[in-house]
Specification:
This protein is α/β, with parallel strands linked by helices and 259 residues long. The chain is 36% helix and 20% strand. It contains 9 helices and 14 strands. The strands form 4 sheets. The chain has a 6-stranded parallel sheet with strand order 5-4-1-12-13-14, with helices on both faces. The longest helix has 12 residues.
């Protein structure tokens, strides 16, 4: 494998919930020794890059805020580029709403005033949110999702993710989102390329999901490695049109591919 940069997923690849996966810290250090750049890319929309980097450092993984790209950061970029003058009505929990506000996305809590509805991870999702979506999503209102992960890996197994909320809103309003950010969206791929500063064909992407991680790497011409520590397993591989270049048990096995 002849690469200069690595794009590494976090949840299910480096972490499971709040826990560092075995060998992950040493693997990231080895990648940094061998490559020019390492970028962490996550579909977790709830944690700001600065906080993510701080958590990683506490666990012994070298990280900076600039070196972490999240699905909310990609959503913010998309909103600024495509809906800069429109008020966003969020159907998402406060951790996402706070990030939108901090990034100067104009917000509203009035469904009738919404120019765009932003749906994402929401542990307190309620029937009233479905009603608000119906009220807000008129013919001229855009519909944006933070990421498509229907489930997320945790210490206790899988839990519903942003994709579950987005699908619920899509179902009740009988319309698909105009854009879903995070991996494997073109916006996120472009932002990742800008951050890492290495041509895609000289990058390796490591992740645990075929439909997001490996799909983005495949679309952009990166070498892809699926690890078995998260969502997608061998049974998923057998049924998927998206196929990684390599399959390894964990991130700890990836540096050896560079030797």
């Amino acid at each position: 494998m002849n690469v200069r940069g690595a794009v590494v997923d976090l949840d299910g690849t480096v972490l499971r919930g709040e826990t560092l996966l075995p060998g992950a810290a040493a693997a990231v250090a080895a990648l940094r020794e061998r490559l020019d750049r390492v970028l962490f890319l996550t579909n977790n929309p709830t944690i700001p890059p600065r906080e993510y980097a701080a958590r990683l450092r506490e666990l012994g993984v070298d990280a900076t805020a600039e070196g972490v790209l999240t699905s909310t950061a990609a959503t913010v970029a998309y909103l600024h580029e495509n809906h800069a003058d429109e008020r966003a009505f969020p159907i998402a929990e406060s951790a996402i709403v706070d990030q939108l506000r901090d990034a100067d996305v104009p917000l509203t809590d009035d469904p009738d005033a919404a120019g765009v509805v932003v749906a994402g991870y929401h542990r307190e999702f309620h029937y009233r949110d479905l009603q608000a979506a119906l009220d807000a999503l008129g013919e001229e209102t855009a519909f944006v999702g933070t990421d498509r992960d229907t489930t997320i890996p945790t210490e206790d197994g899988r839990s519903p993710g942003s994709g579950a909320i987005i699908r619920a809103v899509a179902g009740v309003t009988d319309r698909e989102p105009d854009a879903v950010l995070g991996k494997p969206s073109a916006t996120t791929a472009r932002l990742a390329a800008d951050r890492i500063g290495v041509p895609s064909d000289e990058c390796v992407l490591v992740g645990d999901r075929l439909d997001t991680d490996i799909a983005m790497g495949e679309r952009t011409g990166m070498t892809t490695v699926l690890v078995r520590t998260g969502v997608s397993g061998d049974a998923d591989l057998a049924d998927s049109d998206v196929q990684p270049d390599y399959v390894r048990d964990s991130l700890a096995d990836v540096p050896a591919l560079l030797d």
